[in-house]
Amino acid sequence: VPVPVICVDGPTASGKGTLASEIAHRLGYHYLDSGALYRLTGLAARQAGLEPEAVNEAEIADLARALPVRFGPGRVWLAGAEVTDAIRTEAAGMDASRVSAFPSVREALLKLQHEFARLPGLVADGRDMGTQVFPFAPLKVFLTAGAAQRAERRHKQLISKGISANIASLRADLQARDARDTHRAASPLKAAQDALLLDNSQLSVDESVEQVLAWWQARQ
Ligand code: C5P
């Protein structure tokens, strides 16, 4: 039986996580936050004393291939230690973006990502869900929002977690991250040819959810 997969790809802080996890919840599907895997790989590298640099690519890919990770509802553990908040800092996002540019790291994480595709279905969010990881997914959404909205949302998200942040530097960070993600050779951030575009700059979370559910129902 083929597992139905809905892909939600898009740039940093476009609201992919909120949208994808809500759709998964509404449909009773599993949820894959693929960015968390890159964040975990970056953290594992740091813990092993490896800078996220090209000279360390092979060693970092080895870490990614055997990532000692465990997911619970809204929580994640690395080698038995909870790292739910530790992987959410901007520094962790930047490390994730660095290690994610290494082709061997992307390759190493493929199998783990495919394991999330289980019945009754999966909603997967990231940068290359529709282009590389689940190219046969029946629904691919490419989510965008203006840089100002994204910086503002990321700011709120961090503040609500008790992490202090500055909007201007967040905006600069997310633009730097987008530039690296878009221009890298390995699986750059881009919409799949058959993706449906959704700009949520002017939409509430509910409106975005309803739009994607309507697209999904139209495909059943
Ligand atoms: O989505 P999130 O901000 O958690 O992702 C962190 C970083 O991981 C991104 O900036 C991107 O470089 C990388 N990533 C990726 N492919 C994915 C998901 C995330 O390259 N599917």
TrEMBL record:
Subcellular location(s) per record: Cytoplasm
Binding-site residues for ATP, renumbered to this chain: G10, P11, T12, A13, S14, G15, K16, G17, T18
Start and end residues of each Cytidylate kinase domain: 6-214
Source organism superkingdom: Bacteria
Cited function: Catalyzes the transfer of the enolpyruvyl moiety of phosphoenolpyruvate (PEP) to the 5-hydroxyl of shikimate-3-phosphate (S3P) to produce enolpyruvyl shikimate-3-phosphate and inorganic phosphate.
Quaternary structure annotation from Swiss-Prot or TrEMBL: Monomer.
Similarity field: Belongs to the cytidylate kinase family. Type 1 subfamily. Belongs to the EPSP synthase family.
Protein name: Multifunctional fusion protein
Species for this entry: Ottowia oryzae
Included stretch of the parent chain: 447 to 666 of 672
